[in-house]
Amino acid sequence: MPAAKDESSGQGVASQQNGALGRGIGVEQGSNHSCGLARLGFDLIVSSHFHVFEYGINDDDSLAVNIYSSKTEACIFKESEWGKGIVLSTYGKGVFVNGFMHMLEFTQIVVVDIEGKTWMKILKPTGDAISIHEAQDYGTSKWTLKHKVTTLELFGKKNIEIGIEVCDVAYRVIAVHPEWNLIFLVGEDKSLLAYDMNRSKIHVLLARAIGYPRST
After folding, report:
1. The pTM is what?
2. Of 66, 78, 162, 176, whose CB count within 10 A is highest?
């Protein structure tokens, strides 16, 4: 299972759908129903151990999570403290940083620690362009804008949908390289692009549709 990770910190997160990862290591289902969403978090600088976060839905539509630790070889079940109305997509992005799993929801980022004791909700920045924000005060909704580029600057066109979900967008952001300042995108035609924030230039890495000039 490939992991998207920050090479400078050794932190990463891997995705596993349909509960296969959970079944493979014996994650308990608890009293909730698995929604086929699991994330693997690890930090190689801190420890060689890892944690698996498997999210589930209770009968009242609230969320709960099974957290497995490879160190203790045990799983704990925790009811969500995010409140009701939280919807996590199977394709939702997850990032494991400083012992917390961060999951991207529609309007916010929901966070839980490896012990299921600390739960946070952080409002996402909004806008009509690709923008890179840095959390000014961790655990709050204060962000500092680091970079922003509009679709007109990228593609010479307005009203082009860019997002992180699989459906209903023309281009999907799949990864960010923090050291090289690159944003990787996939188009509806399966073309692979990279936007260089330092040079404000987009590169076509893999062209699947007629009409794309291949960057060198």
Report:
1. 0.64
2. 66
